[in-house]
Amino acid sequence: MLFKTDAEKAFGVETYLSPEMDAAIKLWGQLEGGKPPWVKESDGRSVSFSNTVARELAKLITQNIDIKVQPAAGFTSREKADFIQKAIDNYFSKLAQEKIERVIRLGGMMAKWDGDGIEYMPPDRFLVTSYSSNGDIDGVIFLFYHTEKKKFYTRIEWHRYEDGTHIKDDGTTEKVREYRISNKAFVSNQEGQIGSPIELSQTTWAHIMPEFPPSGKRLEIDKPLFTYIKNPYSNTIDPDSPLGVSCFSECIEELRWLDIAFSTMGKETKNSSPMMIVDQSVIQYATMNGIELPEFIENVGNLDTGNGTGGSPVEMWQPTLQVTTRTEGINFYLNVIAMKTGFSEGYFTFNEKSGLATATQVEADERRTINTMMSYRNILDRPNSNGDGRVGAIHDIAYIIDVMSVIREDNETKEIYVNKDSFGGYEIFCNFADPFQNTEEDRQRAYQLMIQGIISKVYYLSKYEGFTEEEARKMVAEAKSENEPKDGLFGEE
């Protein structure tokens, strides 16, 4: 539920959600839930192939993701790095595939820190209030819901920057951008309606401040306390919107026809049993004599051979399955969907690829898939365009965690500020699985290098044979000891 008009009225602000984007977001949510508009209740559910595609792509993107947080150069304490490492491990790394799946399906997700963990908000749970000329969102209203004792509660939380004035030590003033968060709550007796305003103190959100920082105080931070993880696709639905679009935004029709193709094949299979068609007289005779007829008997009225003399009271009907034709049609739609979602041709098919392929051929065949995977990895971690460090959603999440951990209130002035003495001091390193890596080929190459003495036996055993470095060192030492020449038959004189 997006109480767009109510949220705008509550804060006196305009939000940016066009009717086209609103309709698209609802459609993508229906796809995710397996209930697209073309599937009627009587037909059951969709095959949800879009979810299959999203799951496969998310696995490729997050495969063996390894995020390490270390103290920055010049910092000796690991306290901050360890704190951020633990938060990212628990609230990002463990959930990475699941959350990236939803980004792929829904066009994007908001990530924000609530003090205890990272919250991920789908596009039907937030409204954009401001964004920069390059599309970076810096103002958002988040919506939260709670039901208790047949009452429906809604909390709206507005994050934004406001222009402020700061008096410097010399008495002069300077303009600053102050970060503010406002919270309001509502209660309704009916689901789907925002209802009337209610004090936060009377809800489950009593611990949340209506205004942060409180009136008369200010908070200056470089980036907002949320980050939008956005699909790396251009928005062709509403080019003026800062929101991302689903991976499936341009293959909705193909997904519909794929459902139809699967449904048709399913109905054919269901109705493919041989059928015995009998005359009405046979049914009447069975009924009068208490005879139970088997399921494969079908009454179609009076049978007639067409010569006016009547025909056989029993005829057999054997339907012909068009499996090959149906499979070809399904594979056609699978190929189009694969192409439109960034996969290589033939990635999704009912038939296995024939013949053997060299590593070079496989690499060339999957180049399109790999490029798509890398474009998604870039939204998580990539070099900064100015050549200074790295940026991306993972770094934004770490920044949010860092800021929230060092916000302080001055005991004398009661000013809210970021304690810069304990801010920063960490570096993030992200590693992903190499899409070109062939483990067996690498192992064989490393074995030859070990035989030639170019790499050590310890390195080979620990890297490619599954031993720990300690176990490998012990094995090499024991082997060396056993192979050393000894006096006598058993090393004794």
End-to-end distance, in Å? 89 Å
Radius of gyration: 32 Å
Largest beta-sheet details: 6 strands, antiparallel
**Roughly what is the average pLDDT, rounded to an integer?**
83
Give me the count of strands: 18
Low-confidence stretches: 305-309
Shape: flat
In terms of DSSP E residues, the strand content is 15-25%
Supply the number of helical segments.
14
In short:
With 493 residues, the protein is α+β, with helices and mostly antiparallel strands. Helices cover 36% and strands 21% of the residues.
Describe the structure using short key phrases.
6-stranded antiparallel sheet; 18 strands; 3-stranded antiparallel sheet; alpha+beta; 493 residues
What report would you give on this structure?
- Among the domains are: 4-248 and 376-428, no CATH class; 440-483, no CATH class.
- Helix content is 36%, strand content 21%.
- It contains 14 helices and 18 strands.
- Strands 4, 5, 6, 7, 8 and 9 form a six-stranded antiparallel β-sheet that branches. The chain has a three-stranded antiparallel β-sheet with strand order 3-2-10. It has a three-stranded mixed β-sheet with strand order 12-11-13.
- Strand 14 and strand 15 form a beta hairpin.
- Helix 6 runs antiparallel to helix 8 (323-340).
- It is flat and about 110 Å long.
- The relative contact order is 0.12.
What's the helix and strand layout?
Blueprint: H1 4-11, H2 19-32, H3 49-62, E1 66-71, H4 79-91, H5 96-106, E2 108-113, E3 118-121, E4 126-131, E5 137-148, E6 151-167, E7 173-188, E8 196-198, E9 211-212, E10 226-230, H6 252-270, E11 275-278, H7 280-288, E12 297-299, E13 314-317, H8 323-340, H9 359-365, H10 367-380, E14 382-383, E15 390-391, H11 393-406, E16 407-409, E17 416-418, E18 426-431, H12 439-451, H13 457-464, H14 469-483
Parallel strand pairs: 11-12
Antiparallel strand pairs: 1-18, 2-3, 2-10, 4-5, 5-6, 6-7, 7-8, 7-9, 11-13, 14-15, 16-17
Helix pairs in contact: 3-5, 3-10, 4-11, 6-8, 13-14
